[in-house]
Amino acid sequence: MERALSVLYTGGWAARLWALVPGATRVALIEHTLRIAGREKGRPPLRIAFASDLHLGPTTPREVLDAAFARIHSTRPDVLALGGDYVFLGATKERVHELQERVRQVSAPVKLAVLGNHDFWARPERLEDCLTQAGVRVLVNDSVRLPPPHDDVAVVGLDDPLTSRRITDKIALQEGVDAALARVADVPIKIALCHSPDGYPEVKGRGVQLLLCGHTHGGHIALPGYRPLWIPGPHGRLWPYGRHDVDGLTVFVSRGVGGSLVPMRTYAPPDVALFTIDGGEP
Length: 282
Ligand SMILES: [Fe+2]
Prior knowledge:
Elements (H helix, E strand, L loop, with lengths): L1 H7 L4 H8 L7 E8 L10 E6 L10 H14 L3 E4 L10 H12 L5 E4 L3 H5 L2 H10 L3 E2 L3 E4 L7 E5 L12 H14 L5 E5 L6 H4 L4 E6 L8 E2 L3 E2 L5 H5 L3 E5 L2 E5 L17 E8 L4
Parallel strand pairs: 1-14, 2-3, 3-4, 4-5, 7-8, 8-9, 9-13
Antiparallel strand pairs: 2-14, 6-7, 10-11, 12-13
Helix pairs in contact: 4-6
Bound molecules: fe (ii) ion.
């Protein structure tokens, strides 16, 4: 199917068509503050910019990517977190170079990323290398403690539950997440990053306070009232977009930025998010 779509979208006409629709290239900035009681007094607020599903390719207008990265720059984040699906229809050298330059120009002192299903369908090694050269640490069932003054926070990156080539079954994913969590067991605040909200079962009840994900595109094509026609995955159908506080764990599902199969979104506007982690009552 991707080969057929590559032919269909040759020349980039689809993205140019999207860009012609008034207002369609706007990218929303969604802001939330998460107050975590365990955060020590005196720690400065931690600002995490989160962007997912950039989908560089023939169905994402350059104007949408420009708007998304302008939003990210405006947040002046301590951490840039990327949720995967960096390309659509292949990790070509041009797309990888553009991705690398856009990410490199973000001035966040810490940049972290996971990979998504479209990355595993493309060239995950090339994308991982590109992100690494842009100063990003790619976390695939891995974890990292943030540097001071935010060293009371760890970020755990999950493998993509749907498509990873590094896992073959559910047990392997659980073992990978177990190992990643064990490495930061002594860090009081844990934030998980996973391409899909279907990573939720792996982190619920495991001391993780925030799960950041994308993948759903908010339905991509939705009806008035932001009602998706179809969403992939059971947890995506439960939480197609937005913030959901569930049993002490905050799940945030971004609608993402770019296009995939269809070069247009309806009632599923692109977004990037800023989460501010602060102390105080939750
Ligand atoms: Fe996507």
